Amino acid sequence: MSRVEIMTGNQAAALGARLARVQVVAAYPITPQTSLTETLAQLIESGEMQAEYIRVDGEHSALTVCIAASTIGARAFTATSANGLLYMHEQIHWAAGSRLPIVMCCVNRGVGAPWTIFNDQQDSISQRDTGWIQLYCRDNQEIIDTVIQAFRIAETIYCPVMVCYDGFVLSHTLMPVEIPEEEKVDAFLPPYRPHTILDDTNPRTINPVMFADLRANAEGILCDGYMEIRYKLEYALKGALKTIQDVSDEYALVFGRDHGGLIWEYKTSDAEVILTGMGSIATEATIAADILREKGIPAGVVGIRAYRPFPTEALIRALKRARSIHCLEKAVSYGFAGPVYTDLRAALYGSECDAQMQDYITSLGGRDIQPSTIAEVVLNRIKSDAFDGRFREPIWINCRTE
Amino acid sequence: MDKTKDPNISAMCTLAVGEAGRTGDWRSFRPVIDHGKCIPSQKGRSACFLCWLYCPEGVVRAEIPITIDMEYCKGCGICAEECPAKAITMVKEEGHE
Ligand code: SF4
Ligand code: SF4
């Protein structure tokens, strides 16, 4: 029997890693991730979890240890936030280029300068182009389930997965969480098999220097050049759209919980006004949609769970009836607009969805936002006669701009 | 196995002669040995072999007389630079100006 316990998002992530039978943990503490790694350290110390906890001098080393562990065939897990994630940056690319199915929790926090320990999503967004899958969670139940799913996805297609969830809002907030049964998780997640079995009777160099062109090796096999290896990574990620959905569907069958795979929808069947976003802000948008409905506006929410790979087809299907789309974002691509708006506008261009779009930057560095505020700004925007489909500057919510 | 298609999803290579491709193709200068100056040839016993030690491609054979595998010698000139007897001269390959 599965049981329900009250726990924080960080505890849920740690329990997810334990249930996934992670064999190597290497992590460096950083707020708001710290209690996740502390929980793992306790579980390993007490013998409840059979894993190596490798202490390291920083996040760059943490991911390097995971890369080494994953290469030799161990299931590896790490977690970090904000500047810790940025310190890993080089190895984040390296893990993806090596096609290692590492799972990392990014407990989302704003990045310095100036220092903030509070939540936004600038950290994981800034790692968008590294070749990692990025999944964003809405609540603590989704965190524990997503960590388990993430290993299954990662080990199916050999790509690393970042499980992102909002710092403090989820990481330190207590919620009831149903803990999946161990035997069911074991059946759902078979032992990890590395894509390359290291063998000392047949030694190899992993990731040698590549030349621009393909090369014939000593056996006469035409080996990929840098560009072919990168193409394989890109199409593995594109293929992950199906894997993420399939794994989510199978999880729903086995465990009875469906978090939506690539995207999730709230009251969209008759909705003309769609709010969208990732993580807890999208949950908050569901309350804003209800407020808008009370005012007679047919509003709904399309939440983005998979940001990379970007679920273009799923979003076109979900948004094709929308008259206007409102992107609520906790990150900025400085000098242009929010990342979700940017990608969504590109994905929808020329599709059967010709909705008007507006971008909103909100909650940077933990600035509070209420559902009533979201409803109010969206209402003001749809009433505005300047809504003509052209690119408009993002609206910074709850920010003194003059 | 399909000899024309690399099955690996990440980059790797094995320790084998020619694994990096025909590096001899890179050469614009070739090392030419003057065995009248080369120490092992002159002494008639194993000696010096600094060219063998320093060659980054591992293509010098530590024999008497020493030989170089020109399929893979990339023409870097390190052997000529290191030779204490000035027995190796780098000579321009045909077609290279
Ligand atoms: S050191 Fe350079 S030039 Fe000399 S043999 Fe080796 S590869 Fe050729
Ligand atoms: S370094 Fe010069 S002298 Fe020594 S073995 Fe090589 S060619 Fe001969």
Give a structural overview:
- The complex is a heterodimer of chains A (402) and B (97).
- Chain A has 402 residues and is an alpha/beta fold.
- Chain A folds into 2 domains: 3-188, Rossmann fold (3-Layer(aba) Sandwich), CATH 3.40.50.970; 263-396, 3-Layer(aba) Sandwich (Rossmann fold), CATH 3.40.50.
- Chain A is built from 13 helices and 18 strands.
- In chain A, the strands form 4 sheets. Chain A has a 7-stranded mixed sheet with strand order 3-2-4-5-7-6-15, sandwiched between helices. A 6-stranded mixed sheet of chain A has the order 12-14-13-16-17-18, with helices on both faces. Chain A has a two-stranded antiparallel ribbon with strand order 1-8.
- In chain A, strand 13 (273-277), helix 10 and strand 14 (299-304) form a beta-alpha-beta unit.
- The model of chain A has no long low-confidence stretch (mean pLDDT 96).
- Chain B is α+β, with helices and mostly antiparallel strands and 97 residues long.
- Chain B has a single domain (24-92), classed as Alpha-Beta Plaits, CATH 3.30.70.
- Helices cover 15% and strands 18% of the residues of chain B.
- Chain B has helices at 39-43, 50-54, 78-82; strands spanning 12-14, 29-33, 60-61, 67-68, 88-92.
- In chain B, a hairpin with a 5-residue loop joins strand 3 (60-61) and strand 4.
- The longest helix of chain B is centred in the middle third of the chain and has 5 residues, at 39-43.
- The chains are: A alpha/beta (402), B alpha+beta (97).
- The interface between A and B is medium-sized, with 31 and 19 residues.
- Strand 9 of chain A pairs antiparallel with strand 1 of chain B, so a sheet runs across the interface.
- The structure holds iron/sulfur cluster (2 copies).
- The site of one iron/sulfur cluster has 13 residues of chain B, from helix 1 and helix 2.
